[in-house]
Amino acid sequence: MAEDGRDESLATDDESDHTALSLRFLPMLCGVTAQMLEEGSTLLRRMEICVAEAEKRNGKNTVNMQETFTVYLVETRPMDAVAEGRNQAPDSLWRRYSEFELLRNYLLVTYPYIVVPPLPEKRAEFVWHKLSADNMDPDFVERRRVGLENFLLRVASHPVLSNDKILHHFLIEEHGWKEVVYETGFQAKADSRLRALSATFRVRNPDKRFMEMKHYSDELQSHTSQLLRARARVADRLYGVYKVHGNYGRVFSEWSAMEKEMGDGLQSAGHHMDAYAASIDDILEEEEHYADQLKEYLFYAEALRAVCRKHELTQFEFEMASQELVSKKQQHEELSTGIVRTFSFKGMTNKLFGQEAPEQREARLKLLEDLIAEGEEDVQEKTVECGEHVERAWVDMHRFKEQKDKDLREALINYAVMQISMCKKGIQMWSNAKECFLKM
Amino acid sequence: MSGQTFPADFSGHMLDLDEDDDLEVFSKNTSLADSSPMPNSPSSMVNQYRPEEEEEEEEQLQQQQGANDKDIFITVDNPESHVTAIETFIMYRVETKTTRGEYDSSEYEVLRRYQDFVWLRSKLEETHPTLIVHPLPEKFVMKGMVERFNNDFIETRRKALHRFLNKISEHPILSYSQHFKVFLTAQELLSHKKQGPGFLSRMGETVRAVANSVRGLRSRPEEFSLMQEYVEDFSNKIYSVDKVTQRIIKEQREYLDELKQYSPTYAQWAESEEELAEPLNGVASCVERCSKESDEQIHHMSEVLVPALHEYVLCTETLKAVMRRRDNIQAEFEAKNVALASRRADQESLQDEVDGLADRVELANNALRGDWSRWQNGMRSDLKSAFLSTAEKNVDYYEQCLAVWESFLLSQRVEPGEQRDGEDEPLPTHPIID
């Protein structure tokens, strides 16, 4: 597997031309590369997707109160139109964040063995003081737009998720989509939290690899959130350092007015100090993109854990079913042989009050046999369910791991690039200031 | 100018006969022929003051200083704690190496405490009331410091004392002060300290000065009014610059604290990763190295820029005092002048007094005038050098950090140049169709 799948895509057949084309319109976010496309997503090859804009709307919410919310424009364009160079206008529709959430919840329930890509955060977290935590803040809305687009691209390039009908519908049909989703009845299929929690505690033999993965997801979540918190604090402080230099600008300027020889040098030095102070805004805005890349994986950790929990649940249900079966078989044996191996209430009453009539016994034996048959079917089902989940989940978790390693490595590289850029600016600013001081 | 009667009157505040040595410098016919050109400059500066030649002299002065025929080298070091029954204090070693003729030896080593420096300075100010004598470090530190004998405090003070003596030694007039020589050479300073105007006479001076200031000046020559204004403005500006600098250092320290907490988060994360461990540790190490650079940069600022600015903050008090003293000298003359006008008797002796005071005023003004431009040049040069040094260090800081991050990129087998160069797109676009 080439490190830079992008280059590879350019070199191969015409199919990759389509892929390459699609890249022109891909938002430039790390992680979504030609490599992913090559790995078998069909949707993204057929269709170009982007979240182009965001707009404010006013409307009534579920309790009939006025509210302001943001809608996002989802644009799609068939790939062959792009290939033929037809400057066709894209199809578009508006979606709000809650609809994205609905889509994701549907996917979570329907594909419990897939590590489902996360949505960008609902509320701004890990803010440092300059960024407002306001959802209406234009910077926040813009970063969210990018995050939503990233979500769609990840889903549309996923080998399994990209084939989902509801997803297609989401991208193409604006109205009535919600009803269609509800009609799938996915909500009923959702596992109750209580059941899942109970399973976590009571499961006896979960797959070791899944337990390790679950442990890893906890670690990932903890480490990324610590990192994000520390980064935000560093950003806050760095902002302070740069901005205080602006005071030099002001004072130098005033001072230069009263000096003869020193005046010019001081004044121009002051201007450079102002420029230095101003430069931090762009630097930190850019760093937010890095933070967003990390946040994506913070939220991915939750998705990973969900897959592991599902395993615990299916394994637990299999164990329960097996146990039931064993117990029924045992009862049957006891009843038919008359030997009581284990203590039972029936055994006690038998001893005390005498055995029951043969007809009753027959009836009970028959019942048990039916139950056993059912039970065996149940165990069979559960085994399949559990096994399938393990198999598919393992594949996706592996895919996720590779994606994560690649994406995060790129994110770290991007971070280094940002730092280099910041250093270069600093060198320039202070070299300029030095020239001014020389003139003093 | 009557060169002969001056010494007695000009040194109205002095009773030291030793001051005659000091005043030789004022005479045109210097007998210090064997020593360096230096003595000429003070005399050209003060004694032969002629307005039209002011600029020329200033140039000369600068050239003299630029030529740097330094004939005296002083160091202050080796602070040591001395304990007596009554008190504990620090003694500093003052080492002098000189080729000047008036010094008996070419090397001296004496022990001095802060009080001794205070004595020297007050003597210099007494003798030369309108010369700008470099300030001493403060007696007490304003905030934060609890213990007088904190190592940082002692070191800061030592450096400032060193600078003080060197500034005096570079001053064309003060450098030849007898008090200065005594300070540098006498093994036992106490006996010299006992000489000089007694407490009562000093009291008298103060009372006179206050009385004069209450009376007010008739009219201050415009050049000194402008000077006064400048001093006020400069005082505000330098104080602001000092404050801003302190604030910057504070912010930088807080930034550094956060950085130190930041780098471990990468290392900790690396522990639970396989493929990612290497780049994560790489970033952790980069952040750590940048922290070190930041630490050095803060240190440099504290050692270079802060003391330089602080000295000039202290200077403003000196300048204000000099302006006040000049004003007082003028006020005294004016008072006597008024008295002369109103009195009938004692006209002759009063006239002599008035003449004497008039000369004193002129001398004082000349001294200040000359020293003023000298001081301004010194200020410009000192602050320029401090700012330059700071800017250079900052460039160095960023260059070091740049190298750190670039080496990280290399380790990831990515060419630093290939990546975006501060543009908006995070990934390079492809030169595709069209």
Automatic annotation (TrEMBL), chain A:
Keywords in alphabetical order, please: Protein transport, Transport
UniProt similarity note: Belongs to the sorting nexin family.
Q: What's one Pfam family the UniProt record gives for this protein?
A: PX
Superkingdom to which the source organism belongs: Eukaryota
Q: GO molecular function of the protein, one example? A: phosphatidylinositol-3-phosphate binding
Organism, by scientific name, is Cyclopterus lumpus
What's the protein called, per UniProt? Answer: Sorting nexin 4
Q: Which CDD domains match?
A: BAR_SNX4 (cd07622), PX_SNX4 (cd06864)
| PX domain mapped to chain residues | 50-177
User: Per its UniProt record, what InterPro entries does this chain match?
Assistant: AH/BAR_dom_sf, PX_dom, PX_dom_sf, PX_SNX4, SNX4, SNX4_BAR
Q: Would you tell me the Gene Ontology cellular component terms? A: early endosome membrane; plasma membrane; SNARE complex
A GO term (biological process) for this protein?
positive regulation of autophagosome assembly
UniProtKB/TrEMBL annotation, chain B:
Q: Write down the PROSITE patterns for this protein, in alphabetical order.
A: PX
UniProt keywords (A-Z) are: Protein transport, Transport
Domain named PX is located at: 70-191
Q: What are the recorded GO MF terms, alphabetically?
A: cysteine-type endopeptidase activity; phosphatidylinositol binding
What are the boundaries of the region Disordered? 26-69, 415-434
**InterPro entries from the entry?**
AH/BAR_dom_sf, PX_dom, PX_dom_sf
Compositionally biased region (Low complexity): 35-45
Record flagged with keyword Iron-sulfur = no
* A single GO BP: reticulophagy
Q: Kindly list the GO CC terms recorded for this protein.
A: early endosome; phagophore assembly site
Similarity remark = Belongs to the sorting nexin family.
Instruction: Provide the protein name.
Output: Sorting nexin 7
| The organism's taxonomic lineage, starting at the top | Eukaryota, Metazoa, Chordata, Craniata, Vertebrata
